[in-house]
Specification:
Number of domains: 2
Order of helices and strands: HHHH
Structural class: mainly alpha
Radius of gyration: 23 Å
Strand content: under 5%
Oligomer: single chain
Number of strands: 0
Length: 80
Amino acid sequence: MVELCRRGDRSVGQIAKGVDLTEAAVRLWINQAAVDTGERDGPTSSEREELAALRRENRGLREDVDIVKSATAFLARETR
């Protein structure tokens, strides 16, 4: 998709319409490809994936901490 747009044979809008996507979505792909190849500044796709994974892990760890806190409070009440 990105390569088709870079060739310049057709406009981004024409290419997007031909594959039933929005022009905005295709432009996002083009911009991300430019970041991934070093043509533009910003987080690469692999950095974005890593950040998403770290956020998921962080959310899970916070949930685990909340469970441990609740269990500790429950056990403290029960042992009195």
